[in-house]
Amino acid sequence: MTEIDALASASPPEEGNLMSQITSASSLAEIIRAVPGSRRALESFGLDYCCGGQRTLADACRALDIEPDAVLAAVSQVEPQPDPEWASMAPDALVDHLEATHHAYLHAEMPRLTFLAEKVLAAHGARHPELSEVRDAYAAIRADLEPHLAKEEQVLFPMIRQLATATTAPQFHCGSLQNPISVMLREHDQVGELLVTLRRLTDGYRTPADGCASYVAYFEGLAELEADTHLHVHKENNLLFPAVVALEDRFAATSA
User: Is 40 exposed, middle or buried (0-12, 13-18, 19+ CB in 10 A)?
Assistant: First the structure.
């Protein structure tokens, strides 16, 4: 059974038992799965639950000098929510969802943020020279994400759809899909590091007192881009890719 199959078939936990499932030894991905809606709480502490989703809460907090109990207390305040629909999607449905949701968002939003980056730098760069570094950091993120999206849309996702609907193991030019997945994982790590840099340069996307409406829109857009990318990568790293690997393993076991 794949992780997605397991999520689909498992009985939902009672609301009162959600917090009993997680401790400082739980991974960040497990916390997200156990308490839908907790991603905002983790993000408020700067915790990376997507690329770093397999780290335990204790390890992730140690790296940032944060008390795990403070994070657990924040998560305990999250209003109970039902599991999101995407949490139980099969791999072929999940890639359709990723393209329609996160890829479409990025294709529309990244050009707007590039325009705002140049506009705000031109208007405020003399008083805020850090805006030049912010513009460059965002440009690096866009330069990473655009070819990454193309590789998923044109190469990896079509192969995942083929695998998910096959009755016998398909033969791919790359061999196992674990090979392109490993490339995607490395690229996720790279964009995660760039987002950390962007958050530092913007002081957590804090608009200065003399910032105009475009400045506010720019930093709000960057903050939204970070949040959307974290969720996007979480769905791929912690749901889609493990399900694809498990499906390949199942085909290998039946053909042995």
Answer: exposed
Token pair of 77, please? 């305040």
Tell me the DSSP string of 89-135.
Answer: --HHHHHHHHIIIIIHHHHHHHHHHHHHHHHHHHHHTTT-THHHHHH
Would you say the pTM of this structure is higher than 0.90? no
Other CB atoms within a 10 A radius of the CB of residue 211 amount to 18
**Rg of the chain over all Cα atoms, to the nearest angstrom:** 20
Cα 151 to Cα 70, 107, 238, 241, distances in angstroms? 39, 14, 19, 15
Amino acid at 79: E
Spatial CB neighbours of 164, under 8 Å, sequence gap ≥ 6? 90, 91, 92, 247
- Asked if 75 and 35 count as a contact pair (C-beta separation under 8 A), the reply is yes
Q: To which residue do tokens 């749901």 refer? A: 239
Model confidence pLDDT, tens digit, residues 4-24: 344 333 334 444 455 667 899
Q: What are phi and psi of 56, to 5 degrees?
A: -70, 160
Q: How many residues would you count in the chain?
A: 256
8 A C-beta contact, residue 3 and residue 246:
yes
